[in-house]
TrEMBL record:
Domain of life where this protein originates: Eukaryota
Protein name as annotated: Uncharacterized protein
Amino acid sequence: MTSSPPSLSCVLFLTLALILIAISPALTTSRKTPDDLHDQLMKTGIKITLNNIDSHGKFTKFERLHRAMNRGRSRLQKFSEIVAGKNPNISSAVHPGNNEFLMKLSIGTPPISYYAVMDTGSDLIWIQCRPCQQCFPQPTPSYDPNNSSSFSTLSCYSSLCKALQGSCDNGCLFFYYYFVDSSLFEGSLGNETFTFGNASVPNIGFGCIEDVVAGNGLNQPAAVVGLGRGPLSLVSQLGEPKFSYCLTSINETKPSTLLMGSQASVNFSSEFSKTTPLIQNPKIPTFYYVSLQGITIGGTNLPINQTTFALNANGTGGLIIDSGTSMTYLVESAFALVKNEFIFQLKLPVVEQSNSTGPDLCFELPSGVSTVEIPSLVFHFQDADLDLPTENYMITNSSTGVMCLAMGVSSSDLSIFGNIQQQNFLVVYDLLEETVSFMPTECDKF
């Protein structure tokens, strides 16, 4: 018995199937992997809008200065405690998040919007998560990982868990001590898609805070994005060695800008910038230390001892550059020289400070005089003499006839170069070259 030949339709079907099989490998290899998406994202770059934490309040510039100073003094104290090793004997410690700038971001799929603190003084990215046994109040609902299709738990064997010194129990669990109000947090590490503006970044490791074990956390944000030098920070996880920010004046309510990837130095010019090396502190690898070698006021080079701002072998001392601290705080011996020199050169009546929360040095402006000649201020960093605009260190309240120096005295041997001194500079961090650069920029037009 002979079989009948296949029909024309069967032949066509088999031929089409063979063609699809032949070309299917080529189709699958064209799909973009997470690494491809990451590389494309870094080439495009990320631009994030930053808002000062007081920008939506009806505060005068002096009220904003006082509020920023209160946060700054608290942050300085906590930084000093970290450097001195005064942290509880627990897995790890959260660095200060009492900060100045908020960024809007979205987490998960579908994305849910939150406001988070931008913090160059910490590493971990974290947010309060559901279910939360006891969490502090926040204006938005806590993040719920069960509602996101892109969430996954991080293994306790992952590099980020090891960096956090987490423990193993159905994932990576950790305890964190938050210095700002002595809150102890408990949480777990997860992996999620974060969206900044129009840029979605997959596979970002973050801390899911599930319980406030101690403290009330009333002064804390709902989320923090750490931009420090450690492996847990957003900078390290993106694997992009450059990031930058451009901070608008404390007198303005206009937003500032954070730039990552190719955007970080797109408007940067070495011809108009000053660059100084970053210093690594092995004891506190998160912080960005720089070498301050001297200060000049109105042409007078202050007789500051060369060891005043030195980073000591035990990790104490030194000067860090920080976006989250409002004013520059100098160790007592250096600030005394700065204070006395401004008093000597300005020759204006000094306002007695009965309120300890106010600036450390204020002057009474002469009546009937519209302008006062203010001495120049130059910070001599290693390889970079940074001549500051007057508004970056002297703030005037014309309604009360008072002018104050936007600098203060440190209560420890740690000094901080604050964000008021950095305003209207494009500040570029290059972790490959281990440098930080300052380029004068109108940040409100950035």
